[in-house]
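[Meeting: bench + compute handoff]

Bench side (C.D.) handed over the final construct sequence. Compute side (W.E.) agreed to return the predicted structure before the next meeting so the bench team could plan truncations. Sequence as handed over:
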Amino acid sequence: MNMFKTIRVAAGVLVLAFAGCGTDDAATPGTGGTPGAAPGGAKGASGTVVVDGSSTVYRISLAAQEAYNKVNPNITVVVDNHGTGGGFGRYLEGEVDIVDASRNAKPEEEAKAKEQGIEWTRFLVGYDGITVVVNPKNTFAKSMTVEQLKKIWDQDSKAQTWKDVEPSWPDRKFILYSPDKDSGTFEFFTEAINGKAKRQREDVQASSDDNTLVSGVAGDPDGLGYFGYAYYAENKDKLGVVTIQNGADAKPVLPSPETILDKTYKPLSRPLYLFVKNSAMKRPDVAEFLKYYLDNVATLAEKGGYVAPTADDIAANQKALSSTGAAK
């Protein structure tokens, strides 16, 4: 199976909306689990766990789904990637159990959850560095300052050609490729570079599919785009990477596992999360899958192409999981 393609529910599987405030968990997806089944793949547990959200974290969750299927094929794990915002939207509508998030929850998302009586627990599952890429034929824009990136991507930008950004660069029109507006990557990048989340010019080739963005830049000599590090690392032969200079006196920094983890790749290093509804974790299917995910998160993060959580992160995840009672 290609781990980068969306896993869809097999025909005939009915995914029931899980509980809002005051709703019996018997009407939620995956309620066929055996009560009291031990987390980690007890043979008696079954059901359906629905995961949606970030196309960045998708790769980690898909690795978890594929590995867990070998441990307990009786539990169906459905992984989709409608962007962090799309995942939270479905989550608040009661359609998913776990949100993959490449940013933290927004205050308005937290407020809506509180209004509905939804309590969640956040787990850190890896680190990413949003990577700015150009076509391999681009021999001039190998390094950019944050100010130059803002001059290109900002909502009020008047720049149309490379020369508009740097006088020594060619007088050719650049073509921009960006995640869509439901993407946590889009929100993180625009806030880090342009100073406000979702503040970006409109004349951009936007897509929810990072592989589409890869293909766009790889096929366009004047293409410029950004997405999660794993999508660049997997396509190094098709893309040129841009080093980022964060400040006049700073040295340009290349994204790498080392610079992402130590946060010298600024300002585009970021943590990656899961948000899990506490009441959903009372279901054996969700509890068992989540425990497997967190027990193996370092390996899964690296398999997804990202930087593994630290030992302290993993300990914090286990403490948070234990506090919910799902680890029992």
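W.E. noted at the follow-up: The first strand starts at residue 47 and ends at 53. C.D. will use this when planning the next construct.
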